[in-house]
């Protein structure tokens, strides 16, 4: 089991410099990953300050040496896949091969999509996501690439450099269980992030793992990243490693400790981070 942090990148206290400093402290405290949200607006109210996750991740990469960095999750439907290909490869090189790309449909459909004239229909966003992932993988290869899809068309182009990581930058796909489509998609890539109305239960993770194993066509490593809370946020970061063990027993490979804005200031998050992973 690896241990990461799942943080919002918006709010009055969440300046990119503060997040870069928290990433350094997380590395020193023994965490394995640091993952940011990827939104255009934090909510319909538009009251909170929102910082770009990719620029922030670049700052975090420059301030760390070992910890994995990524998004949970990037809504690929509102990104130009070729632009994201350039950004992800650049960040992979900047970090020395530490990027993990989390993708999904994204939400909410209004504040993150419709407000800007982007596609808000979930079925069309799913189509854009699938085509976008094919384009990313094709451009990452660093060989002549041509694509003719329903939504995207690319002439014969070659993108260099290739990522440091081989065979590619790991892609995790987020989705709400028990919907099957996101996990059929995840099975074609490198990992899954099962979501629900609340935090997923061990039984949900077990169901996800068995479903994905039935969909996989090879035996290459596959991650299941579980978002949850194993620290007491009212008891100075007290840990509950037994809670995490229950998820490891059913096949989870990553635990992402959720530090939400609603109940945590930067200083409260720092307390949890400095306490180290729940193991």
Structure description:
The protein is an alpha/beta fold. It has one domain (2-275): TIM Barrel. It is 35% helix and 21% strand. The chain has eight helices and twelve strands. Helix 1 (16-28) links the parallel strand 1 and strand 2. It is globular and about 55 Å long. The termini are close together. The mean pLDDT is 93.
- The total tally of domains equals 1
Question: Sheet bearing the most strands, described?
Answer: 8 strands, parallel, barrel
Per the CATH scheme, the topology name is TIM Barrel
Q: What is the mean predicted local confidence, pLDDT?
A: 93
Number of strands: 12
The top-level CATH class is Alpha Beta
The first-to-last residue Cα distance is 9 Å
Residue runs with pLDDT of under 50 for 5 or more positions:
none
Shape call: globular
Please work out how many helical segments DSSP would assign: 8
Q: What's the SSE pattern?
A: EHEHEHEHEEEHEHEEEHEH
Which short descriptors sum up this protein?
279 residues, alpha/beta, TIM Barrel, 8-stranded parallel barrel, 8 helices, 35% helix, 21% strand
